[in-house]
């Protein structure tokens, strides 16, 4: 690996270990085995490096999720819904720090326009990908699923044992759809 990749790896590790606010440029450079000036050379600033590292971590989570869910393409819609949510909620345990860092940052976005723009872009991509993933081409579908993921992640961070199961979500969505229709 080169310095750029070493810095990204170190930044992700520090984000997950310490969080965004407590990660220092010195932590990252030391872990990567490079000088502090390498951060500026490759990324411009520590904040830009952390933004790229966070975006990369979210993309890795998304790629893993997409690959796992593609295996169930032949499943009936109701079962696929449940399998999808089992996998998503299972990923919270293996990616809990990723979710914690994202929630940590939400409160500071108004003071960090570049990070806010990165989050907005990631949200747009997530909504589009989720709509394609569930195979429903209707306005708002991706946003609904994105809201469900974020809400369930927040619940999981607070009380992992209290998060609704995939079967409970399926029952709730089915009941709501019947009531609304």
Task: Briefly summarize what is shown.
The chain is mainly alpha-helical.
Please outline the helices and strands.
Blueprint: H1 3-18, H2 25-32, H3 37-43, H4 46-70, H5 77-94, H6 96-106, H7 113-134, H8 141-158, H9 166-180
Helix pairs in contact: 1-2, 1-4, 4-5, 4-7, 5-8, 5-9, 6-8, 7-8
Protein traits:
181 residues; mainly alpha
Description:
By secondary structure, the chain is mainly alpha-helical. Helix content is 77%, strand content 0%. Helix 4 runs antiparallel to helix 5 and helix 4 runs parallel beside helix 7. It is elongated and about 60 Å long.
> What is the succession of H and E elements?
HHHHHHHHH
Low-confidence stretches are: none
What is the residue-mean pLDDT, rounded to a whole number?
A: 90
Shape: elongated
Portion in beta strands: under 5%
Radius of gyration: 18 Å
- Biggest β-sheet strands, sense, barrel: none
Number of strands: 0
**N/C terminus separation:** 55 Å
Structural class computed from helices and strand pairing: mainly alpha
Separate helix tally = 9
Helix content: over 70%
